[in-house]
Specification:
- The structure is a single chain.
- The protein is of the alpha+beta class and 221 residues long.
- The protein has a single domain, classed as Peptide Deformylase.
- Helix content is 28%, strand content 24%.
- The protein is built from 6 helices and 8 strands.
- Strands 1-2-3-6-7 form a 5-stranded antiparallel sheet.
- The radius of gyration is 18 Å and the shape is globular.
- It catalyses: N-terminal N-formyl-L-methionyl-[peptide] + H2O = N-terminal L-methionyl-[peptide] + formate.
- It is an enzyme of class 3 (hydrolase).
- Its EC number is 3.5.1.88.
- GO terms for molecular function: metal ion binding; peptide deformylase activity.
């Protein structure tokens, strides 16, 4: 897994050494995830142009392992303290057919998104509870575009340009927002905020947030 022609910019040796030292501290490749309040989560990530050279595959692997260990379905580099526009995603999907159909949540294979951006396709928005590995222990309802156009590069520098719908679109929006210095809470219905325990206790029987909206007093799109 090389840097690819699209990531052939100059290596930043100081940054490369810093990242190498950070990765070396964690022999199992699972890195600590920074939490809300850390400045890196509120800074716009720098475009990745090849600054890490041949260390880039090691970073991607560490991000993959960290995402799986959390567990989560996406992880952006700022969440491990690195302000570069790189994210990884992977979702095994859900076994419950009703849940899968309502959220349009189907398996997403592992992939790397470098310098991703998205734009809405159409006006339809869907609202569901959403959580974040950097806001540990909490969830809130977020209304997002149902369909988006994703543009990015992959780990080799090849261009990515595709349309995503449903939960895969939500994952891409969530992770790309991280690279803009945004958290899902910036887009959430604040009155919906619930601890993980209370979300499961009161609203976990269905992914439909209508009951939560009525009980907690917020609007759905």
């Amino acid at each position: 897994m090389g840097t690819g022609a699209g990531h052939a910019g100059p290596v930043d040796q100081g940054l490369k050494d810093q990242v190498a030292a950070h990765l070396a501290r964690y022999e199992d490749g699972v890195l600590p995830i920074v939490q809300a309040g850390h400045p890196v989560l509120r800074a716009v990530a720098a475009p990745y142009t090849g600054q890490l050279g041949d260390l880039f595959p090691a970073l991607v692997e560490a991000m993959r392992r960290t995402m799986h260990a959390a567990p989560g379905v996406g992880l952006a580099a700022p969440q491990i303290g690195l302000g570069l526009a790189v994210a990884v995603v992977q979702d095994p999907g859900v076994a419950d057919p009703e849940d899968a159909d309502l959220r349009e949540r189907h398996p997403v294979p592992f992939r790397v998104l470098v310098n991703p951006t998205y734009e809405p396709v159409g006006d339809e928005r869907r609202a569901f509870f959403e959580g974040c590995l950097s806001v540990s222990g909490w969830q809130a309802v977020v209304a997002r575009p149902r369909t988006v156009r994703l543009t990015a590069q992959d780990e080799h520098g090849a261009p990515v340009d595709e349309v995503l719908t449903g939960w895969p679109a939500r994952i891409v929006q969530h992770e790309t927002d991280h690279l803009r210095g945004e958290l899902y809470l910036d887009h959430a219905e604040v009155r919906s905020l619930a601890s993980n325990d209370n979300m499961m206790r009161y609203w976990g029987s269905t992914p439909d947030p209508s009951g939560a909206a009525e009980a907690l007093g917020f609007r759905l799109p």
